[in-house]
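New to this. Explain the following:
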Amino acid sequence: MNRSMKKIFLRTCVYSCISIAILLLGLFLAVYHINKTLPTVEQLKDMHLEVPLRIFTADGKLMAEYGDKQRTPVALSQIPKTLADAVLAVEDARYYHHSGVDFIGLVRAAKAVVMSGHKVQGASTITMQVARNFFLSRKKTYFRKIREIILAMKIDHELSKDKVLELYLNKVYFGHRAYGVAAAAQVYYGKKLDQLTLPEMAMLAGLPQAPSRNNPLTLPKAAKYRRDHVLKRMWEVGFISKQRYLDAASAPLTSAYHHRGIEIHAPYLSEYVRLKLLKKFGDKIYSTGWTVTTTVNSKDQHAARVALESGLLDFSRRHGYGGAVENWGLWEQSLTSTWVKKLSAMPTHNLIVPAAVTNLGPKTAHFLLADGSKVAVNWGGLSWARMRIPYLEETYKASAFHFGAKPKKASDILNIGDVVWLQHKQAGWVLAQVPNVQGAIVSLDPKNGGILALSGGYDYNLSKFDRATQALRQPGSSFKPFIYSAALSKGFTLSTIINDAPIVLTGTGENKLWRPRNDTLKFYGPTRLRVGLEKSR
């Protein structure tokens, strides 16, 4: 090699070394800068799982659950090893043998990208998924992937493998608002974790990759393919024997939607508790997993709610029938499926359900219900329905009425095709209607003031205004002692005669006239004061 060639070679080596040094320095500075933006050790050790607010009665009945995510955090010791193995087999088989990042998997994924020109397989470890799920966005960029890798190595250094796996199994999304394995076991199988079978565990393990695409409730064929893939991976990595794999792969799908239902219906009371908590503690109540136990007794609450609803229905029945909701025309047997579909779309209102008239007898009416069944209502359940006709005077239109003629046959009340409401009582079905009047009921413990039962209206879905806690009390007749005592102090006596006659007052503050009246809607003419006081006029 001549002198000039040596010179060029030397210069190339120097420039190469400088370039590598600059590249390494740049890489170091980039990693240092990214590391400064990542969570601290304290944040890593205090990772927060979002758990909904649950409100219970004093005797342990669930009244309400508030929060977007269904989650029941469990320790790793409470999770069956077979379920953890199923997740590891399909998500990160080398989990216990790498430092948070599987560089072999990264190289394999990079090679696949180069060969195909696009991403064909993932390389995220469970630790990387924990880093992304807790601290990073799901936006797919190379910068996010770099942050994810650095953060995963940091997590692996600060936390034990078992702790990271526990966080993952409690955090990951399984579809249908279920977060974490315990919630997923409840939603898909209605079971606790220790009650799951191997095929069920494999099904759950296959969901995190694509909860909607592999969902057994909506796409059972795709879900079974994914489940069988999980079982095969468990056999390939040595978690189960070949025979167990074959037996489990031949098992049928048994998943169905399960949800821990509300055990005691108390929407007004639950909302009252929620608003109190929100005012005092803020939005954190929805995600910190609080369990709130109230003073409410479930039996008292059920009895109070039914008493209020029944009382309002009875009051509505005594004050006349308001007519059908609508009419769908003449009934034919071929219309059954159409009418059932339309009835199913209508809401139920506590004790009453929608129904359509299919046939009328002299004193009997036949109805189709939303479940496709047919019921008959005899005259005892129909005869109360005298038509309610409002008075013509503008003042009384909203609240005053008189009754039409007493019905003599079913056709005086109903027409075929009428859509109405029915209530099931002990003696059978009766015609009903959604009450126009509202009410409230509260039961308190006289010893300590604790609420034993509360309901603020007929149906929370119809009106969320809580008349028990949000309504201002109407004075009713409580103002009359002040009026009568003022009259006595002005020289009136119990024998003073006052003319009970219609009057019209102005300046009520509502820019309209006021015509006070007795609750009987009658006026009684000249009346002694003591009679007015006695009759509360």
Q: What stands out?
A: The longest helix spans residues 3-37. Confidence is low (pLDDT under 50) at residues 392-399. The longest strand covers residues 352-360. The chain is about 40% helix and 15% strand.
